[in-house]
Amino acid sequence: MIAPAVSPEHWQALVAKLRAQAATPPTCPLSRESPLIDWCVYSLLLWETTSPTATAAFERTRRHFVDYNDLRVSTKGEITAALGEKYPLAAERAIRLHALLCDIFERENSLNIERLRSLHKRDARAYLLSLEGCPEPVASMTFASGLSGHAIPVDQRLQSLLIRADVAAADTTPSDIAAWLVNHTPAEEAPAVTSLLRAWSDSHTQSLRGGTPKTPAHPTGRPRKNPAKGSKA
Prior knowledge:
Elements: H1 8-21, H2 35-46, H3 51-64, H4 68-72, H5 76-83, H6 90-108, H7 121-130, H8 136-147, H9 156-164, H10 174-183, H11 190-202, H12 205-208
């Protein structure tokens, strides 16, 4: 019998420890008009960094750009400057953010994806995963937090921590870990577990500094066929 890539015993012990600490990360400052796209942008800013860093960057972009359309038509250099050149993966993040907003606008003829709420959860998740420049942890965070979907996002920062804690094997990918965690976490507990993991990741800024995540050769990814593209609910 092949041993699981994630240790159930160590995972349960970690969750119990994190629950005892009861730490919570900052919340995403959502707008009233389009909270789903807020979650997309915030999740992309959060990817491979900490919640306080992402929250500060999210608020900076709101001050710097009139709205998301202004952000969409801005140059990647302007977006990088708004994030701050020392922001983790600032240049790549700017490329991804620009690609994400342009893809949404091309599909929806607007920067509003609230219609995803009327789709089947599976189709909404597929839509998010298919967005240009959107890493899987970003789609999962948007799906979980914005649509109450059953998902636990795992980026390379969290992967590193779970490996150090002997929860995951050294050769386990973030996607494999995320799939295992979802399969072993009831849907009603997933939001709380995700919050605990974010707070845990936030608390390890120093120990993870310098461990720059390995990123794809093509930051925005390759164009993907999307069955939901242009379709309306």
